[in-house]
Amino acid sequence: MIIILMGVSGSGKTTLGKQLSLVLQCPFYDGDDFHTPEARLKMGRGEPLIDEDRQPWLENLSRKMKKWKVQSPQTILACSALKQKYRDFLSQNFEITWVYLKGDKALIKERLKQRQGHYAGVPLLDSQFDSLEEPQNAIVLDISNPPERLVEALIPHF
Predict the structure, then answer these.
(1) Residue 23: predicted pLDDT
(2) Is residue 117's pLDDT more than 70?
(3) What is the pTM of this model?
(4) I need a surface site. Which of 26, 58, 107, 154 has the fewest CB within 10 A?
(5) How far lies 36's CA from each of 1, 33, 39, 58, 107, in Å?
(6) Count of alpha carbons within 13 angstroms of residue 45, beta-carbon side
(7) What is the 3 state secondary structure string of the chain?
(8) How many other C-beta atoms lie within 10 A of the C-beta of residue 14?
(9) Residue 95, class by beta-carbon neighbours within 10 Å (0-12 exposed, 13-18 middle, 19+ buried)?
(10) Does residue 7 contact residue 83 with C-beta atoms inside 8 Å?
(11) From CA 71, how far away is CA 58, in angstroms rounded?
(12) Are 122 and 112 in contact (CB under 8 A)?
């Protein structure tokens, strides 16, 4: 099973993923690590990605997921997966549990202002929310709660 933590940039996917992987004793991967250099540069300039920019990233993630499925019975991936068509693409041939990290734009904006050394910052937040299609079949977590509480809420599902 692959657990995908999804949501807009700054929603806490990486923080939660690292903590959850320690508790579940399984690998964690950050989807941001698999973007093309061109996409990273574009986001670093504050330019939102379009579907064509994201397709190579999604294809790369799908290839990686095939490997992870063989290597471990359970894997956690932090991945924005903002649109349903992205989630549909990633769900092909995989058993995925989707976890949607839902939060208020003002809270996420404050988090992004505090973030250091990441190419996806405040200038991309509006476009992230504009692209977001909230999932229908996901575990929904309120990110106003501390990460430890979110981990506790997820454990019964796995």
Answers:
(1) 96
(2) no
(3) 0.90
(4) 107
(5) 26, 9, 5, 10, 28
(6) 8
(7) CEEEEECCCCCCHHHHHHHHHHHHCCCEEEHHHHCCHHHHHHHHCCCCCCHHHHHHHHHHHHHHHHHHHHHCCCEEEECCCCCHHHHHHHHCCCCEEEEEEECCHHHHHHHHHHCCCCCCCHHHHHHHHHHCCCCCCCEEEECCCCHHHHHHHHHHHC
(8) 18
(9) exposed
(10) no
(11) 20
(12) yes
State the residue for tokens 């903590």. 19
pLDDT of 122 reads 63
Is the pLDDT assigned to residue 56 strictly greater than 70?
yes
**β-bridge mates for residue 3, sequence order:** 76, 97
Report yes or no: 141 and 21 within 8 Å, Cβ to Cβ.
no
Name beta bridge partners: 97: 3
Q: Which two tokens stand for residue 131?
A: 């692209």
